[in-house]
UniProtKB/TrEMBL annotation:
SUPFAM superfamilies: NTF2-like. Residues 5-96 form the SnoaL-like domain. Coiled coil: none annotated. This is SnoaL-like domain-containing protein. It comes from Streptomyces avermitilis (strain ATCC 31267 / DSM 46492 / JCM 5070 / NBRC 14893 / NCIMB 12804 / NRRL 8165 / MA-4680).
Amino acid sequence: MHPFRKAVEAGDHAAIEALLAEDVVFTSPVAFKPYPGKAITAAILRGVSRVFTDFRYVREIAGAEGRDHALVFEAKVGDKTITGCDFLHFDEDGRIDDFMIMVRPLTAAVALSEAMGAQFDRIAREAAQGAGA
């Protein structure tokens, strides 16, 4: 089991953040523009953990070189069941430098967008605190 998956399944936000490169770029399934930086990425991931319920990874796929991983998950957002995939790329130091999430179906993606939108102010505050740490 990949260390990122293990950290997520344990709810260990410190371990998740430790796996992020300072220059990580996070691409959201519901926002047009990517989010650059460790502080905002960590804050978004904490927000996602508050929004998702019944989260579980159902498949882990690793690239031949070990620097690319895809983690397929299922969860609920409110009463909507969502299926998604975390696409992770790791730099030379073993830290995540590219993090993209894709989700389906559309109704669940809309529910995710609305739930994360409600978290936006808190996420921005957490990111600002993390960037100053």
